[in-house]
Amino acid sequence: QVQLVESGGGSVQAGGSLRLSCAASGYTYSSDCMGWFRRAPGKAREVVAAMSSDGRTSYAGPRSGRLTVSREHAKNILHLQMNNLQPEDTGVYYCAARPGDPSNWRLTCSVVGEDLQFDYWGQGTQATVSS
Q1: Cβ distance 23 to 80 under 8 Å?
Q2: I want to staple 33 with a disulfide (CB 3.0 to 4.6 A). Which of 12, 59, 100, 126 is the partner?
Q3: CA distance linking residue 20 with residue 10, whole number of Å
Q4: DSSP string for residues in 16-57
Q5: Total Cβ atoms within 10 A of residue 10
Q6: What region does 75 belong to: left with phi over 0, alpha with psi -120 to 50, or beta?
Q7: How many angstroms separate the CA atoms of 130 and 12, rounded?
Q8: What are the pLDDT digits (tens) for 75-127?
Q9: CA distance 98 to 105
């Protein structure tokens, strides 16, 4: 059974930090791509970042150093470090997974200008930033 379990959400004031984690288990891709998405209140879900199993990362928009995605490969845990959080970062953050291909990273794990389809999703973790 495939499971993606997010944790690390919470409530912080503007300028604070959160580190989200996603523990993945049960899927059998030889290579994968794991991603973070956000659904802000009243808005559609949008991609934030992704990381392939061979360590390549991509971000959907300008990070200004605020977002960093990382991965513990041995444990198959994906992290999203968020610094200098602002109220517009508020939302439910979801983790997702899809098959990857190290020889074709741009089409299988780049979120820049791509509309990747992910197979598996977590339940989400709420992050709330107050001004």
Answers
A1: no
A2: 100
A3: 9
A4: --EEEEEEEES---SSEEEEEEEE-TTS-EEEEEEEETTS-E
A5: 13
A6: alpha
A7: 6
A8: 899 999 999 999 999 999 999 999 999 999 999 999 987 688 999 999 999 99
A9: 12
Exposed/middle/buried for residue 91 (C-beta within 10 Å: 0-12, 13-18, 19+):
buried
Composition of the chain by helix, strand, coil, percent to 5: 10, 50, 40
CA angle 29, 127, 22 (to 5 degrees): 20
> What amino acid is encoded at 26 in this protein?
G
State how beta strands 120-121 and 125-130 pair: unpaired
In tens, the pLDDT along 6-39 reads 999 999 999 999 999 999 999 888 889 999 999 9
Residue that has been written with the tokens 């845990």 in this structure: 77
Spell out the residues 6+ positions from residue 54 whose beta carbon is closer than 8 angstroms to its own: 31, 100, 102, 105
Q: How far apart are CA 12 and CA 28, in angstroms?
A: 36
Q: Which residues pair with 21 in a beta bridge?
A: 7, 79
